[in-house]
Every structure is written in C-alpha cells, then in structure tokens.
C-alpha cells in the first residue's frame, strides 16, 4: 500500500489552522513566541497596530456621524442604520483587546491543550476526535462564511453597484458612495483618487473588524471542542472501568489519574472563563441592540438594504447562538463526568475508593462554564434571554420612533 494512503494522526495545529491563518492576515500571530524570524514577527506587529489605529479612527468617524444624526429627527434613521455597525466594531475592538490583555493566559492554555492532545491514531479513536472535529469544522465554516459575507457585502456593494450602473446601464456619473456611514474631516468624494484611497482604507478596516470578531469566537470553538472531547473521554473511561474488588490498588491508581485529569480540564476551563467572561458580556449586550437596530432597518428600508441587513442579522444571531451552544455543550460534558462516575460498580470497591469517587462526583456537580458578570452562565438559556432583550429593545424603538 502506498504511504500516501496511510491515514496520519491529526495534530492540534490542524484544529487551530483556521483561526491562526485568519489572524495572521491582520498581523496577529498567536504563536509569535515560537517564531524564529524576529523580523517577520516585528513586521506583523507593526501591520497589526497600524491596522487597528486606522480602524479606530474609522470607528471615531462612525461615532461622530451617529452623534450628528441624532441631533435632528429627520436624520435619526441614519443613526439607527449606523448603530449596528458601531456595535459590531466596538465588540471586535474589545475582543482584540482581550486577546492582548490575556495573551500569556492564551499561550498557556493553548500549550497545555496541545500537550494533552492525543498524538496517535489509536488514541484519537479512543477520544472520538473525528466526531468532535467534524462538527467543529462545519460550525466554523458556516460562521466564517456569514461573518465574511457581512463585511464583504457592506464593503463592496456600493462600488459594484456604481460600476454596473456606470459601465453597463449608461449612467453618466459614477456614484461615489461608501458601504458604511462615516464622518470624515475632509470631502471624501470630491476627487476620484481621494475617494478610492478612502474606499480601500474603509475596506481594510471592515476586514480587520470582521477577522478580529470572527477569530476570537473561532478560538473559543476550538478550545471548548477540545475540552468537551477530554471530558467525554474521562466519562467513557470511568464508565468502562470494571472496578474489580480484588484489584484495589489498580482501582485507586486509575481513579487518581482520572481525578488529576479532570482537575486539569477544570483549571483550563477557568482560564477560558477568565479570558472570555467580560468580552462575552459586552458581546451579548451589543448583540441585543444590534439585532434590534438591524430588525428595525429590515422593516423600514428598501429591498436592497433589506438584503444587506438580513446577512448582518443572520451573522449576529448565529454568532450569539454559536457561543451559547458551545457554552451549553461545555456544561453538559462536564456534568456527564459525575454521572459516569456514579454508574460504575463502585459498591464493590473499598471504602477509600468510594470516598474519592464521591468527592469527584461532588466536584462535577459544579460544572465547568463561562460566567459573564451579572449574566447567567452561557448556555442556550442565555440565547433566549438575548433574543428576548432584542425584541424588547425593538418594540421600544418602534414605539418611540412612531410616537415622535
């Protein structure tokens, strides 16, 4: 048989490929500490900082535009149109800030997960890694497509529309419009070269925001997938253990190894909680308002605007659902450890073994979870709460708008 047909084990790097590659396109190198090329690392860092300075200047322009628009009732609609983009930008900014502040924690987390990753094909089959990876890849593909579709549509639609009208429909002027409502301290549409420089500057800012927003969630998906895989493996090993009463030393040795393994997984979950809890709180609050403002745009705009904002709406709702789904999966996987421990034939074992098993069951009753401040632990219940908040904001906005 040809060696090329032999199945090779999947590495941790294979699972991390998508977030790592996308992050590098904006200058963020997660594994910069392993790089041997200092010049490349420096250039990437300069590119990243320059990109975020440019992006934040554009966000300031959006904020100024929003402020000017709410001064007059006639332009309030424009403020509502730009509000979701501001929310998206601020969340992207905060997610990137979180990655910077918790960089050491992130490196430690990824290094430990890589060390724990099953290395051989036999081990990976025991961990049922293929099943976890298959689900993860589908989720990542769908969310990546939606997130990039949103930024691409908003960015390119005005130029494509103007090009079609000018070159194919016989219009005498080229409409110099932008996909995002931004205030500039200069006339950005006065000259052709000024317009195109500004246009591609905005395009880069939009791409950077989309990648920063996307990759933080892709990292979360990869990490929680790994943790769920480890919890599932612990559950399977506990349930399958025969608990032979004549082999007490082997039973105790096995249980000690499982307790240490379980404790390490719970410690890594705490790292994830520390990294993501506050940024996800902001994410959910902003998502509630984003969904509200987008829904208002969808109900009050032309067909072409509705189509564009529908992509944005789907992206926002899928993103919240994605985070809540994986938060729920983490809770369920960690709780199953206690159930698996109880399902053993522990009544045949020594008193010492039973006490240790009891402590493990008690610890598993406090499941691993991500706990945003003032918010319930992230689960599918959280998703319903976010959607409920969005509807309340939407109803309030509609009532206020039409009353005035």
UniProtKB/TrEMBL annotation:
Gene Ontology MF terms in the entry: odorant binding; olfactory receptor activity
GO annotation, cellular component aspect: plasma membrane
Keyword Membrane: yes
Keywords, in A-Z order: Cell membrane, Membrane, Olfaction, Receptor, Sensory transduction, Transducer, Transmembrane, Transmembrane helix
Spans traversing the lipid bilayer: 46-67, 139-160, 206-228, 280-299, 305-326
Membrane topology: Multi-pass membrane protein
Family matches, as InterPro entries: 7tm6_olfct_rcpt
Subcellular localization(s) per the UniProt record: Cell membrane
BP GO annotations: signal transduction
Keyword Amino-acid biosynthesis: no
Subunit structure: Interacts with Orco. Complexes exist early in the endomembrane system in olfactory sensory neurons (OSNs), coupling these complexes to the conserved ciliary trafficking pathway.
Family named by the database record: Belongs to the insect chemoreceptor superfamily. Heteromeric odorant receptor channel (TC 1.A.69) family.
Name under which the protein is recorded: Odorant receptor
Source organism per UniProt: Drosophila mojavensis
């Amino acid at each position: 048989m040809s060696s090329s047909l032999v199945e090779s084990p999947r590495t941790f790097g294979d699972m991390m490929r998508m977030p790592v590659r996308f992050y590098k396109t904006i200058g963020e190198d997660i594994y910069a500490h392993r790089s041997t090329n200092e010049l490349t690392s420096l250039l990437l860092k300069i590119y990243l900082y320059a990109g975020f300075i440019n992006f934040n200047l554009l966000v300031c322009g959006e904020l100024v535009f929003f402020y000017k628009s709410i001064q007059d009732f006639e332009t309030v609609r424009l403020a509502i149109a730009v509000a979701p983009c501001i929310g998206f930008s601020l969340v992207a900014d905060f997610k990137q800030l979180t990655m910077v502040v918790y960089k050491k924690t992130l490196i430690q987390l990824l290094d430990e997960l890589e060390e724990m990753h099953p290395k051989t094909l036999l081990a990976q089959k025991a961990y049922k890694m293929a099943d976890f990876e298959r689900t993860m890849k589908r989720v990542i593909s769908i969310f990546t497509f939606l997130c990039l579709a949103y930024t691409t549509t908003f960015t390119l639609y005005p130029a494509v529309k103007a090009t079609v009208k000018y070159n194919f429909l016989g219009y005498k002027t080229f409409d110099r419009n932008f996909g995002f409502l931004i205030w500039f301290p200069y006339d950005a549409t006065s000259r052709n070269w000024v317009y195109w420089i500004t246009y591609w500057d905005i395009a880069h800012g939009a791409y950077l925001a989309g990648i920063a927003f996307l990759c933080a969630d892709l990292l979360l998906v990869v990490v929680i997938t790994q943790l769920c895989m480890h919890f599932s493996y612990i559950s399977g090993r506990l349930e399958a253990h025969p608990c032979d009463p004549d082999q007490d030393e082997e039973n105790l040795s096995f249980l000690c190894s499982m307790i240490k393994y379980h404790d390490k997984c719970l410690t890594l979950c705490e790292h994830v909680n520390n990294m993501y809890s506050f940024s996800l709180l902001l994410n959910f609050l902003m998502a509630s308002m984003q969904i509200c403002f987008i829904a208002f745009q969808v109900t009050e705009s032309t067909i072409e605007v509705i189509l564009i904002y529908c992509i944005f709406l789907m992206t926002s709702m899928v993103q919240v659902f994605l985070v809540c789904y994986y938060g729920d999966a983490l809770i369920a996987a960690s709780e199953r450890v206690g159930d698996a421990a109880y399902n053993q034939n522990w009544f045949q074992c020594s008193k010492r073994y039973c006490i240790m098993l009891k402590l493990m069951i008690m610890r598993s009753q406090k499941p691993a979870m991500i706990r945003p401040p003032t918010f319930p632990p992230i689960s599918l219940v959280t998703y319903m709460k976010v959607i409920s908040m969005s509807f309340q904001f939407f109803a309030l906005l509609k009532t206020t708008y039409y009353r005035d």
